[in-house]
Amino acid sequence: MTVDWLKIKDHGLYCEPGGFYIDPWRPAEYAVITHGHADHARPNNKHVLATSGTIEIMKHRYREACGEKIQPLPYYHHLQIKDISVSFYPAGHVWGSAQVLLDYRGQRVVVSGDYKRRYDPTCEPFEPVSCEVFITEATFGLPVFTHPDDSLELQKLIDSMKSYPDRPHLVGCYALGKCQRLLLRLRQLGYGQPIYLHGALEGLTQLYHQHGFDFGELILVSTIDKKQLNGQLILCPPSALADRWSRRFEDPVIGLASGWMRILQRAKQKGIELPLVISDHADWPELIQTLEDVNPDQLWVTHGQEDALIHYAQSKGYEAKALSLVGMEGESE
Ligand SMILES: [Zn+2]
Ligand SMILES: [Zn+2]
User: CA 281, CA 36: separation in Å to the nearest integer?
Assistant: First the structure.
């Protein structure tokens, strides 16, 4: 079976019979967007098709540059675009994230965007969709990447706060998805204190809140005297850990919530005292599990550590190849 109607062109992954790009890296006439992360959802496309969650995120980020014609498509609904039937299925990655199922004359291709298989109260869980071609990322596509249960990692944070009741705990997390997941999971684990936010995390968290996510009491760091932050939990974007902003805190415990924290060397280099291995991307066992669950004829691997996953898939009898997508390297996580 050959799927020759989906290819890499100048703006990214292009579906020829539908005349649209998926997550184009340059402004396109017609863009189908898997989710709101900036390396997938870019501004200035003319026509945008996405889930309503993703559209809310894009509007929040890009305002009128979000797109000229914006069309929401709910999960499980079908939209005919020329000769292609398009539908979205939950990807379990961040709020609104979708896998795109393309059906062209009975050939089914799933473009999964980014996904994970773990519990995440901010989004619908990933759903395996049967198809001939499954397109996957492989950010953590090496056997060394096995992510622990997030409740164990967050318990480490809660325990550290008990052990060092006078030190502020400063935890870096990505502003879209990771931050809101941490907030909800901490509340579920019984952490009832106010949680302090860096200003860069406020907007998206408020957007989630407007759409029904309840994070308990949140306070902006900028409104508080730094002495009152001893013994408190403060979330900030990862970049803020290294800049001047973080110097205002007295003897902080520095943490970072990322799948990359599995590599302790990396944590050490960045001066992270409390590495929290919490990822919104599939780890190696999840990638393998997904391959088995979806059971496609072919696996196309986009960004990340392609080689090991391709080799593994081939050893199990799947056709597998790399699909190089520019601009997706080094996934922010
Ligand atoms: Zn993403
Ligand atoms: Zn990505």
Answer: 14
CB 19 within 8 A of CB 29: yes
Report how far Cα 91 is from the mean position of its chain's Cα atoms. Answer: 9
* Joined tokens for residue 84: 């292609």
Distance 223 CA to ligand 1 centre (A): 31
Secondary structure class of 172 (helix, strand, coil):
strand
- Do the strands 169-172 and 253-257 form a parallel or antiparallel pair, or are they unpaired? parallel
List pLDDT tens digits, range 278-322: 999 999 999 999 999 999 999 999 988 889 999 999 999 999 999
Centre of ligand 1 from the C-alpha of residue 42, in Å = 12
**Ligand 2 centroid to residue 22 C-alpha, Å:** 12
pTM over the 0.85 mark: yes
Cα(292) to centroid of ligand 1, in Å?
A: 22
Separation of CA 205 and ligand 2 centre (Å): 20
Cα–Cα distance, 295 to 279 (Å, whole number): 24
- Measured in Å, residue 35 CA sits from the centre of ligand 1 at 7
Q: How far is the CA of 94 from the centre of ligand 2 (A)?
A: 11
CA of 228 to the centre of ligand 1 (A): 35
Residue type, 66: C
Which residue positions in the chain have pLDDT lower than 50?
Answer: none
Q: How many residues does the chain have?
A: 333
Tokens matching residue 112: 């999964």
Closest alpha carbon to 145 in 255, 278, 331? 278
Residue 227 region, left (φ>0) first, then alpha (ψ -120 to 50), else beta? Answer: alpha
Of 297, 330, 305, 326, the residue nearest 8 (C-alpha): 326
Q: How far is ligand 2, taken at its centre, from the CA of residue 38, in Å?
A: 8
Residue-wise DSSP of 239-268 = GGGTSGGGGGSSSPEEEEE-GGGGSHHHHH
> At how many degrees (to 10) do helices 202-210 and 52-62 cross?
140
- The letter for the amino acid at 70 is I
For residue 209, give Cα distances in angstroms to 206, 219, 326: 5, 14, 34
